[in-house]
Amino acid sequence: MSYRELAVRPVLAWxxxxxxxxxxxxxxxxxxxxxxxxxxxxxTLGAVLAxxxxxxxxxxxxxxxxxxxxxxxxPQLAAGLAVGAAGFAGLGLAPGAHxxxxxxxxxxxxxxxxxxxxxxRALLTSLVPERAxxxxxxxxxxxxxxxxxxxxxxxxxxxxxxxxxxxxxxxxVLMGLSVAxxxxxxxxxxxxxxxEGAAMRRALLRAWPVYVLGAAGLTxxxxxxxxxxxxxxxxxxxxxxxxxxxxxxxxxxxxxxxVYGLRGSWPGPLAVQSLVLVLAVAAGVALVAxxxxxxxxxxxxxxxxxxxxxxxxxxxxxxxQVLPPSAIAAGYSVMYAAVGAGYAASGTxxxxxxxxxxxxxxxxxxxxxTVLLAVIGxxxxxxxxxxxPDVPEVQTEDAPVRNVxx
Length: 406
Hints:
The chain is mostly helical. The protein is 75% helix and 1% strand.
């Protein structure tokens, strides 16, 4: 199936809702820093607010994802987005509030819509035939990386060109628009009996190797983003190159996601594909740590980016193999929390290492942690796939994966 066949009204409407719902998420950490940077200790407070936001996402995603009703997901998705919109609007309307109030609003803004990405991904795969799932998820990956590439420039332009509160207010408006857009989409997806709470928890826990390998991939992204400015200073390269270099990584990821979706399937099991891709990205990030020239670092980052999106895609596709259909949305939400935790853990490790080691050494230690996580996840997934029985195919090639209810 070609990408042209995805250009149908439901998928286009889904894309619009996704942009309106995810752009605020991509803008959030930087927008929080700009919001309070002119206050005493502003940068430290901004980091605390960003941490509160990410903590809200990590804690709420698995809890809300497990409670999602597949056949009537719209009210839960709308409620989550509305809570997020209220949190962002509150931050924008009260930038001078007490730090504890701002932290609570940031936590709320992160927690409210935490299960929305998983729910929307499950909804997307219900809108297309089974044979088009890889292309649909590749399209989602391209869209996501494009959003993340545009968010920093948009946030900086609004904060510095208009007012530091404007990005947060804009985020609230965008999330509000995404709530309205949900009514252009099906109310949910169906196709399997809903798992009981204990059964769903067992199914999600059995999939732990997939989450570990997914978290390993995001630790590399954290290393590239958080240590790159310090590494450039170590190399005597202008710190202003950090933005273009990271943009190259994001553009490479968007291209990699598109290319992966050009084929319906690639050689080898998904677990093997993912391990190879994560290790290849790790090699690219390790090269960034040792190469002394700007152009060489740029090439290494673009190459790593080309493989980053396929590595993430294989993780999400693997969840569809090891989880029952009724638990897939919850599985995506747990994956969202796992990769967020991996990013946060890698950032914390990087910050600690930078106090006692050179930036290049800190990156190499982070790469070593990634490789360890990848090996653990791959070993666990190999055992998991041996125990997972094949699911019989009951749909025709052109039939949707699940019946869609409007």
